[in-house]
Amino acid sequence: MRAAGIACAIGAVAVWATNAFTARFALAEMSAAQVLALQFSGAAATVLICRMLGGKAVRPAFPGLRALTVSIVGLVGTISLQYLAFASAPIITANILAYGWPMFVAIGYAIGQRSRRGLGFLGFSVLGFAGVALIFLDGRALSFSGTYAAGYIYALGSAVCMAYFTAVVARFPKANGDAFLLAAIIGAALTATVAFAGDTPWPSARYLLSAVYIGIGPLATGYTLWTHAMTRGEAARIANIGYLTPVLSTALLLAAGETFTAHSLLGALLVIGASTGVLVYRDGVPRSLRLWGRTA
User: What pTM was estimated for this model as a whole?
Assistant: First the structure.
């Protein structure tokens, strides 16, 4: 069972790593609302097709309010805020912040344990947020009124949503399947309303297809594999594989020509270092300890 969870987590990371790279292309000609509408629609369509091929009922059953809420926060919240960040700030640093969700996991451990060990998690979160501050400031005076501040705040909001989803999804197996499909449909409806209300023209087919790919790949496939991984035992350790995502996605962005400034590079390294530190430090946490009430 643990091997299946590891395989699912690796598959999720592989498709998630292409997310920012593809978003960079799609957002060149489309608004964030348009990209989100297409990717949520693509994700919902993918799940529906898989259900039909698998002989399952196409119409989703209501999974319960709590499971649906987890899926909406994890899917719609994480992705919507992430793409608002991508559209409002340099994508390479926004991507690092959005995938810095282990910093918030560390805070959860520090609060949940209330012990000397919890101080270690607190230390990693402080290190990570020092990196966040460097990214916000980027060499300027001590002021957070920079051009990209709103985008970075969106990215941190996305990270909070993902940290919450990873922490609690193991308690809600129904957050996959029906809840995921309903969340994708809700996300598609909301973002499509915003997209069609805007005045941004719809671009050529290749840009549309890039957004649809994000829905099929990073969104539907990635989140389905990640949810399977988190519900197949040893979730706390398997989750560590997810920390490879910002490294791989950043490598793709650098290969595509994105660059760091000196301060934002140092900040990014601190965020990634803090996230990695959390995984190394957390491996010694007994499974009986709880994160926000229970270990993920």
Answer: 0.83
